[in-house]
Specification:
The complex is a heterodimer.
Chain A lengths: L5 H20 L15 H38 L22 H22 L1 H15 L4 H22 L12
Chain B lengths: L1 H13 L2 H19 L5 H15 L3 H26 L8 H12 L3 H34 L4 H19 L3 H16 L1 E2 L6 E2 L13 H17 L20 H6 L1 H16 L4 H17 L11 H24 L5 H12 L8 H4 L1 H22 L3 H8 L3 H20 L2 H19 L5 H23 L11 H19 L1 H7 L10
Antiparallel strand pairs in B: 1-2
The chains are: A mainly alpha, B mainly alpha.
């Protein structure tokens, strides 16, 4: 087992983001400068910080991979196998995610976005009940009771926001 | 005494029925969110901000509520730590060592009572420090010009970077990300749109409530989705929550020392409750020597850290209120809230808005009394919340996040942004990146840029202005030292450093 590629990819991502930010910053031109620094400098500072952090991470991630590969080569004979593969930087280590975690996280994220688009047409109460039920199911809860809890919660929030605080929430198809 | 007569004025603010009930509400919410692992004060405060803006409470009342959540969370965090060995917030990690041992020995109730009393001692003693140190610091900071402010903010970042995670490169990248996010939108000086990609709704910039809720609350929901089983054994039996006078007496000096250590650590930017608790624990362990039973259920292992992390939250209010410089993720969100309410924390705050500062100080006394009552006789009610199944709790957190984010601008676009930041926050946590510097960068970024540009405009573009006063040079030296000294002490620090949960905020 080789070391995870994730830290290296993340580190490279940080460097690429820094480059993109800096590149875009060069286009911030002002016709009539109001101050000596202008709008470019501060984004550049941010890009430099990102680049410094990212480059340092690329270096350490590559060092970790080399170390892990070496450990694997040694371990193959000694039969140690996994060795320090998991010991790089930030992974949560001992109790990693359960199988299916990536799928649940992807579904959860998608459901947030879908919720954003359903909020206006369906209205707050229905959309929130639906989203609550979907999430409750993703967390391994019972579907019907999840939906019931969601409905109660959505109604409470609606009452609190609209009648208690005077903040508008969309009514959607319930408006009719 | 000037301070005492001012405090009397403060009590007249704090004892108004509205402010009393807000203090009570704040500490109840604080206890609950402090207790629930993962849902910290940072989420609760961020979610309340849009509501506060909508209701239009006076600034001092808003601050009383939000501060109540902040210091109340330091009481609540010991409950889940002691009973379940799951720290409610990072600053309760040390309490787990001896606190959970006591539960295993059937002394859970005793540990809970001790934690509540120590929290009370730390919480109230430190207010004395607040009312004497904050005005003094204000008088000193009144001489700060733009160059000094800029250097001070750099110091805040370097202090946070050196302690908030195990890796300085990650903290640097997180800081850079926060500062970048702060630049999105129309540049206030030149009216040039930056990183808006022609999207009109980005012209006003990112709302920090949307970013904070996405990065912290939504990413927490995603993180919990990794596991479908409820990890905890649903609140162990803890026996009777009673004060053992003997234990309180034996721990008396421990609490006092913990309060003093915690307070001064709290004042330093970046350090905060977690470091304070660790420091207090190691002091007590050393002082006890052979006579200690640390790690095996020593009462002092609960009393010291609990007094310290409460005192640290009070200490952290000082740079926030008198300098306008937050030292942690939570205080950064508080600063964002205060700015939005039209209060500008800084050296002039105490003078210009005495009702805000002294009202807050007085309400913290009141709030701590509420907390003692809530955490001694009523702790059983809170333990029941811990038994809520997570398929109700986490969707509930998500729904609260949605409604709070939507309330900011009534815009579904913000919900999409929130989901994006949720995914980003999840990835950052998995990669061990601290999240607090992002929020600090987002809140301080505009202030930093403003001060930097103002300083250079005054000097006609001459960079030497940044180092022109001894005060500024001193602050730059502190900023460099904050990064270099811990690195030099690296090996020693890493051994003790925060359990590295990647949460980074207290």
């Amino acid at each position: 087992m080789t070391a995870s590629r994730a830290p290296l990819i993340a580190a490279l991502g940080v460097v690429v983001a820094a480059a993109a930010i800096a590149l875009e910053a060069t286009t911030f031109d002002v016709a009539f400068p109001t101050d000596p620094l202008g709008p470019k400098a501060f984004p550049m500072v941010a890009a430099v910080l990102l680049a410094m952090g990212g480059l340092a991470l690329v270096r350490s991630a590559r060092a970790d991979r080399v170390k892990a590969a070496r450990a694997e080569a040694d371990g193959a004979e000694a039969g140690v196998g996994r060795g320090i593969a998991g010991a790089d930087g930030g992974e949560t280590g001992a109790d990693g995610p359960e199988p299916g975690a990536a799928r649940r996280i992807a579904l959860g994220t998608v459901s947030f976005v879908v919720y954003a688009f359903l909020l206006a047409p369906l209205g707050f109460v229905l959309a929130t009940t639906l989203e609550f039920a979907v999430l409750a199911r993703l967390f391994g809860g019972p579907t019907a009771r999840g939906a019931a809890a969601g409905l109660v919660f959505a109604l409470l929030l609606y009452a609190l926001f609209v009648y208690g605080l005077g903040l508008p929430l969309p009514l959607g198809i319930l408006e009719a | 005494m000037d301070a005492l007569s001012q405090l009397a004025v403060g009590f007249s603010v704090a004892l108004q029925p509205l402010n009393l009930s807000l203090a009570l509400g704040g500490v109840v919410v604080g206890t609950v969110v402090g207790m629930l692992p993962g849902i910290g004060p940072i989420n609760a405060i961020a979610m309340l901000i849009p509501l506060l803006y909508a209701v239009g409470l006076p600034p001092e009342s808003s601050l009383i509520l939000l501060a109540g959540i902040y210091y109340g969370s330091q009481y609540g965090n010991s409950i889940s730590t002691i009973l379940l060995n799951v720290p409610g917030t990072a600053s309760a990690v040390v309490t787990a060592i001896d606190g959970h041992q006591m539960t295993k020995q059937g002394r859970g109730g005793e540990a809970l009572a001790l934690a509540a009393v120590s929290s009370f001692v730390g919480g109230t003693l430190s207010i004395l420090g607040l009312i004497f140190l904050a005005p003094a610091l204000s008088r000193w900071a009144i001489r700060f010009g733009p160059a000094e402010y800029f250097a001070l903010m750099v110091f805040a970042f370097s202090a946070l970077s050196s302690v908030s995670g195990k890796s300085v490169p990650r903290a640097l990248a997180a800081t850079g990300l926060g500062l970048f996010l702060a630049t999105i939108g129309m540049d206030p000086n030149s009216a040039v749109p930056r990183y808006t990609f022609g999207q009109l709704r980005l012209f006003d910039g990112l709302d920090f409530v949307v970013v904070t809720i996405g990065l912290f609350a939504v990413s927490e929901v995603l993180l919990v989705l990794e596991k479908t089983e409820w990890g905890g054994e649903a609140a162990a039996r803890y026996g009777k929550v009673s004060m053992k006078l003997g234990a309180m007496f034996r721990s008396f000096w421990t609490m006092i020392r913990g309060s003093v250590v915690g307070f001064f650590v709290g004042v330093l930017p970046g350090a905060g409750g977690t470091i304070a608790a660790f420091l207090s624990y190691s002091v007590e362990e050393k002082m006890a020597g052979e006579g200690g039973r640390f790690g095996r259920g020593d009462e002092r292992g609960v009393a010291g850290p609990e007094a310290a992390n409460n005192a640290a939250t009070t200490g952290a209010m000082i740079p926030l209120l008198t300098l306008g410089i937050p030292g942690s993720g939570t205080t950064a969100v508080l600063l964002g809230a205060l700015l939005g309410l039209g209060l500008a924390p800084g050296p002039l705050l105490i003078e210009r808005n005495p009702e805000v500062f002294w009202g807050l100080a007085a309400s913290m006394y009141v709030g701590n009394v509420f907390l003692l009552l809530l955490n001694l006789p009523l702790v059983g009610l809170f333990v029941r919340v811990l038994r809520l199944p997570r398929w109700i709790l986490m969707p509930g957190v998500a729904a609260l996040s949605f409604v709070a984010v939507y309330a900011v601008n009534q815009s579904p676009f913000d919900l999409v942004l929130m989901a994006g930041f949720g995914l980003l926050g999840y990835g950052m946590r998995k990669g061990g990146f601290p999240l607090a510097p992002v929020i600090l960068g987002l809140v301080l970024g505009p202030l930093m840029e403003k001060n930097l540009r103002r300083a250079l405009a005054l000097s006609g573009g001459e960079w030497s202005v940044m180092f022109s006063s001894s005060l500024a040079i001193g602050l730059w030296a502190m900023a460099v030292a904050a990064l270099v000294v811990p690195w030099a002490l690296g090996a020693r620090r890493r051994a003790r450093a925060l359990a590295g949960s990647g949460i980074g905020a207290e």
